[in-house]
Amino acid sequence: MKAVAIKKIKGVPELMELPKPELRSGAILVKMEAAGMNPFDWKMIDGILQDKMKHQFPMILGVDGAGVVEDVAEGVTRFKKGDKVFGQFLHVPVGEGSYAEYIVVPEKANITHAPKTVTAVEAAAVPTAGMTAQQLLDGLHLHKGDLLLILGSTGGVGSFATQMAAQEGIKVIATVSDKEGGERMKKLGAAYTINYEEAPVADQVQRQFPEGVHGIIDLVSPAAGFSKNLSLLRPGGGAFTTVFVADEAEMKQKGIHGGNFEAKGSPAVFDKLASIIDSGEINIPVETKIHLEEVPDAILESRRGRGKGKTVIVMS
Description:
It contains ten helices and 17 strands. By secondary structure, it is an alpha/beta fold. It folds into two domains: 2-126 and 284-314, Quinone Oxidoreductase, Chain A, domain 1 (Alpha-Beta Complex), CATH 3.90.180.10; 128-260, NAD(P)-binding Rossmann-like Domain (Rossmann fold), CATH 3.40.50.720. The two termini are 12 Å apart. GO terms for molecular function: oxidoreductase activity. Keywords: NADP.
């Protein structure tokens, strides 16, 4: 089968021809239809999990995906042959990832039955970004009419968070780099947009919203930028960073809740996302579709942090 993998930590991603995985106890074999790309994928290349989980090489990349169950091991009860599934396929050993035509994954992994109303390509775009967006919003405890500043809004997490917040009546201030991005975010529900190429975001927010904002989701800023943006919050506000640059002692001193954020997946979380999708409440922002041979270049683009919507790998 074809797969994108690395031969060592910090190695160069390559399109490889590898053996089709064999079914093992407690697992299912999935014929992958699509895989969603996330910044976490290249962080795995850099070794973010090497001290936490066993790795195997060549290490097939990828966490998010969607596909069809081709076979199940004896005793498996959650899934049967022919089921459409989606979710986070990451498991031990790291290296049996979703950037492949086939994957063997434990029945107890963070996967579930796919949404019924969307394609596999759309479903593959959802897991990590959709889950992260929902949990970020839940953690901020915002209310209808509150102002939420999202930095890095045009990427996958930001696009989902904008829509989910808007549905709750929260007024989103989305940061963008051009007119096209502003129009796109308005269509997704942003109440306001700020072009960070024109002037520093903090300066523009202070000028337009002098009383401050109620919450911040920061998906891009370095430590100094995140710290500066905390001054935009009203008393009792909250802020999260997914880049892990928060000084949580500083935040506590200022009476700000939030801090460094890491999403936690489970089958139940993805059942909820599937239900939201099937209700028609969110638009899945698939911006780019590529094939496995294009993945190495797409990973380089992701490292540059200029993503718009989601990039999804289509297997056929």
